[in-house]
Queue: 2 jobs
Job 1
Amino acid sequence: MDSNRSTAETIYVSDAVTTTAKILVVGHFAVGKTTYIGSLSEIAPLRTEEKMTEASAHVDDLKGAPDKVTTTVALDFGRLTLSDELVLYLFGTPGQQRFMQLWEDMARGALGALLLVDPSRLAETFPVIDLVEKYGLEYAIAVNTFDATAEFDEDEIREALDLLPDTPVVYCDARDQTSSARALIALVQHLLTRAA
Ligand SMILES: Nc1nc2c(ncn2[C@@H]2O[C@H](COP(=O)(O)OP(=O)(O)OP(=O)(O)O)[C@@H](O)[C@H]2O)c(=O)[nH]1
Ligand SMILES: [Mg+2]
């Protein structure tokens, strides 16, 4: 019985929760969106992974992720209880051009976006920033620490992405829960400042 209760407590949102917010986790192909939501979600994340075939070889550049065999074809979904009263719903949104149609729906009602960036593939982030801005989403940058991160400092990233001075830039390892949570908290703090 106890085990049933603990399962229920994990699956269902606590009665004490008064606020829920929808947050998008966005970024270019293979930047770590599915990994990020998987490391943070307190429920088994919903994933829509499909095997990549040769048909996508010329569109999805595997340069930065040579071992990748699947890609998200719709969305990732996860949930995180941030405090007794606040629950975040995380929606991973693909950055590839062919999924643009999704953004219309995904962006509706979203409070903001965490924009994952691979510092060695900065140019691939430009179209994603365009989308985030097109849909009027407040955002924070989470630099996913792939191996080359040490070569890029925050100022370089800010300049390359032409960020506003108050746009948060945090470093994270999408595979690490604590590190991922820190990035999300930076976004939430930014959103709260903007709302004040
Ligand atoms: N070294 C390292 N590898 C990572 C990190 N985050 C993700 N990866 C790996 O990078 C690859 C791509 O990660 P995904 O989470 O599938 O990326 P995605 O953004 O969801 O990819 P798409 O949905 O296909 O656009 C996977 O093999 C991950 O294991 C990281 O912080 N460091
Ligand atoms: Mg994915």
Note: Residues 114 and 172 are 11 Å apart (CA to CA).
Job 2
Amino acid sequence: MTTLLEVKNLKTHFFNRKKVIPAVDGVDIKIDKGETVALVGESGSGKSITSLSIMKLIPSPPGKIVDGEILFNGTDLAKLTENEMCQVRGNDISMIFQEPMTSLNPVLTIGEQITEVLIYHKKMSKKEATRKAIDLLKMVGFSRAEEIIHDYPHRLSGGMRQRVMIAIAMSCDPKLLIADEPTTALDVTIQAQILDLMKELSEKTNTSILIITHDLGVVSDIADKVLVMYCGQVVEEANVEDLFDEPLHPYTVGLMESIPSLEADTDRLVPIQGNVPSPDNFPKGCRFAPRCPHAFDRCLQEVPSLMSIDGKRLVRCFLYDKEEATV
Ligand SMILES: Nc1ncnc2c1ncn2[C@@H]1O[C@H](COP(=O)(O)OP(=O)(O)O)[C@@H](O)[C@H]1O
Ligand code: SF4
Ligand SMILES: [Mg+2]
């Protein structure tokens, strides 16, 4: 497997007059070509700021990438100029968000919005671009693509708009697609269709995907590897089968127990107690300690690092520290 993206020790902080807010605090992510990696965690854990950092779209001020490397095909994006980054955004990495209506222009037809990208980034003629737009719309499941190109966004359902966004995101044959909560606004059946579509496109075109979601339930069918994020850090990393077979970190166990499932009786859903601490006030020891059912003295004093388990997965928790295991 060849590595496409390697984020090393990414730190993105926000600065206000009084405080430093470490929204992303030392994150490592490796994505191979064609691989789908999921970044999962409750709202406020730093997922979007991680993805915006990769795209170099952090509003500055107040935000800043203060440390780390973002190696994309070996080039450190952290060092590129804004002009060079524009090229990367249009051609190599594309992004889709939760609410496609805000990303689509309400006064342009679907066709105009797709062809615009192709004419600008791929230097196609209007005619070529229209032909390609129809192909792209067919690829994302519109059988009547020739008609859809004349429609305005408000004529389409939420699921259809997200398909259009995927078509636009795929129009420049990106090597990496970052999807930030792409199905959160959609109902469950449509969610599944959109995830299937992304998986299918990724397999067909060998595009890597970084999918970001607060819902661990979403990732089981689509992801190869899962990174669980809490308070600006990765707390567990494993391939999807291992993670679902046996979640190790108490936070992952909590997320697992709060997945709503279609067949399970909903009485058994147990939300994780307490709230995500604000980044300007992280607890001193393990950041999960105030909510952790297994917390013990050491967790309140020391900061756990990411530990390797059997050389194939990572967990940031003292319960898996060999020193503790021998006690
Ligand atoms: N513009 C900002 N100014 C100050 N802090 C911010 C800003 N944007 C995000 N943050 C901080 O970063 C944290 C993580 O945000 P985010 O990455 O959006 O979380 P997630 O996507 O996991 O819900 C937030 O809880 C917030 O404290
Ligand atoms: S280090 Fe301690 S508080 Fe943190 S997750 Fe593990 S057991 Fe819980
Ligand atoms: Mg977010």
Note: The radius of gyration is 21 Å.
